[in-house]
Write a structure and sequence with these properties.
- It is built from 6 helices and 6 strands, in the order βαβαββααβαβα.
- It has helices at residues 16-28, 42-52, 91-98, 105-115, 131-142, 161-175; strands at residues 4-10, 33-40, 63-65, 83-89, 119-124, 146-147.
- The protein starts with a strand and ends in a 13-residue tail after the last helix.
- The protein is an alpha/beta fold.
- The radius of gyration is 15 Å and the shape is globular.
- Helix 1 (16-28) packs across helix 6.
- It binds flavin mononucleotide.
- The site of flavin mononucleotide has 16 residues, from helix 2 and helix 3.
- This is Flavin prenyltransferase UbiX.
- Belongs to the UbiX/PAD1 family.
């Protein structure tokens, strides 16, 4: 399998630790990856500061794009990005994607991934869900996207918040067809 070009979008839902754990894992998997483009919403940066108490996303050696930069390669289908992971994905971003409102780079990149029939993975986070949220998840699923909720599992007996978040991120990496070492039920 060829190396992947991946877009990571971080939005303002709770759960910045999920994006941190994904960033850390992608560094380990760099031999499978050609490019990682990252775009963060304004609220994503605020929530990261609030929940993790730092701005460490600035230390990652990925290519960061401003949320209004429609010159980013993945704003067009011609750049042929394989996969987009939105982690965590707010209900606001989910709604914009479900309704084709491409008014920032995150919703435009998702629009492109769906129209090009490539892989969109949305790690949605809120609880409980309204019917509007559920219908938007249905719409994105019907359009070919994958809703992978930020619902951790506990059967691997995680011992830290990062390990709890890692139970979701390892499913995301599986969905993105990235080979990784992770806990597998009844195999370890
Ligand atoms: C600390 C904090 C936690 C939040 N958690 C959630 C959440 O879990 N899910 C959600 O949909 N929105 C959440 N929000 C609200 C979103 O940040 C807000 O709706 C924002 O406009 C979403 O836009 P974005 O997707 O462009 O970041 C939270 C906001 C804050 C400040």
């Amino acid at each position: 399998m060829g190396k992947k070009k991946i877009v990571i979008a971080v939005t303002g839902a709770s759960g910045s630790v999920y994006s941190k754990v994904l960033f850390d894992q992608l560094i380990k998997l760099e031999n499978q990856i050609e490019a990682v483009g990252v775009v963060m919403s304004d609220n994503a940066k605020e929530v990261w500061q609030f929940e993790l108490g730092n701005q460490d996303y600035k230390n990652y050696n990925f290519t960061f794009y401003s949320k209004n930069d429609f010159n980013a390669p993945f704003a067009s289908g011609s750049a042929k990005y394989d996969t987009m992971i939105i982690v965590p994905c707010s209900m606001g971003t989910l709604g914009r994607i479900a309704h084709g409102i491409s008014n920032d780079l995150i919703s435009r990149a998702a629009d492109v991934i769906l129209k090009e029939r490539r892989k969109l993975i949305a790690v949605v986070r809120d609880t409980p869900f309204s019917l509007i949220h559920i219908n938007n998840m249905k719409t994105v699923t019907e359009a070919g996207g994958i809703i992978c909720p930020a619902n951790p599992s506990f059967y691997s007996l995680p011992k830290s918040i990062e390990e709890v978040a890692g139970t979701v991120i390892s499913r995301v990496l599986d969905l993105a067809d990235l080979e990784q070492q992770s806990y597998r039920w009844q195999e370890d």
